[in-house]
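Troubleshooting: if your tokenizer reports a length mismatch, compare your output against this known-good record of 503 residues.
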Amino acid sequence: MTRPDPLQLRREDDWSGVRAVVAGFGVSGFAAADNLTHLGAQVTALAETATPAQLEKAELLEILGARVDIHAGATQTLPDDVDVVVTSPGFRPDAPVLQAARSRGIPIWGEVELAWRLRAAGPDGVPAPWLCVTGTNGKTTTVQMLDSILQAAGLRSVAAGNVGLPIVEAVMDPAPYDVLAVELSSFQLHYTDSMSAESAAVLNLAADHLDWYEGASWGERAGMRAYGDDKGRIFQRVQRACVYNVADPATEHLVREAEVVDGARAVGFTLGMPGVGMVGLVEDLLVDRAFIEERATSAAELCSLADLAPDGGAPAPHVVANALAAAALARAHGVSQEAVRDGLRAFRLDGHRIASVGTFGGITWVDDSKATNPHAAQSSLQAFDRVVWVAGGLAKGATFDELVGSIASRLAGVVLVGRDRQLIADAVARHAPDVPVILVDHGEDGGVVDGLALMRGVVDAAARLAAPGDTVLLAPGCASMDQFSGYAARGDAFAAAVRARFG
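Known-good structure output:
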């Protein structure tokens, strides 16, 4: 009997003879294993560790006929009979299970690649188009803004991929979506080969996750070059618009390097006056000079800056940039100016993204725990005039000299925590030697700690450095997993410590 070739299969085909290994059993891994099992494939899921909730899901899959191996060493060996490996995005290319698949000529897909192959035709006979977003920072905000705009246009859409609904779940929904707003990380894009987004955006490129891109297996492409190459994969085979950041030439370079469908065009977004074929700002208005018939001589108003800050004040520059990118993708899909305005008016930032904790004694406390790399921290710090900066954690191979040099004049003080806090302290000593620095020691090498106790120490230290009119800003520039379960837990602990002291 001839076994089916997974490279030729689509959702409507018979998957019953396909032997699939799913590497990793997190959110995306479970979604892949679950849906492949329902399609009839013979699924084996491999994971080193799992939470109680994941173990419960494993039991459900085993009832359906899947095999789930969760134990130390489970991903060190690839089973003998395998037709395709579906990997979770966290697995580096040199992971043993992926090396084994590569040496045996077995296709390696990410969850995004699997989802692309499982798309089903909608009522109009074609699958829902994907509007895709990547970049070092701002991906989640942009995708959520885009989803809000699409829904304001009356479309059935969802934020999926690296945020919201797993992309496999989105494409397998019994009620097809009209369009998908898809956030993609560099890890996800690395394992994606055949995707052809209707339109896509790269918001920015800055050093992040470089530890993932280190090692001999990358050869000359290691580090920032490999990271950028993976981000650029989002533009391959784009059908309508490649959206890039005018202020970041590296993103335009990725557009120029991409092989797109005939007729697709480049669309820049800028915080300045937009040129022809761009979206940007004219005084306090977001305007479109890319998707109107008279774009050479006029501009279409999309919304005002006030629409992006419904609670008053001025929106941070990176929030405006995210809105422009979302608007460009929506306009490329044919969405009206009014829907762009209404969708952006309705949008609210997620928690832990420049979230005000409160003002006490003239000092404002702000939680931007989601700023998990130097580029994101820089955007956050530049939104305030005088800052006591709370930073530190896992640097993921990043450096901090450029960041500190760019915001040194804003710093009233620095409070540092986490395993790589000394990297930041050294950068401050080089570029802002007169700025006082306090290092808060608390279980840096011992895994998850008592977050509230740690942040009480942070708040006490920051309060000693801050004066009325200052902002104490948690913008760590680092990942949180050395001390917390995630950036949300870090931000929650910071806010709780502030309120415990002043509330």
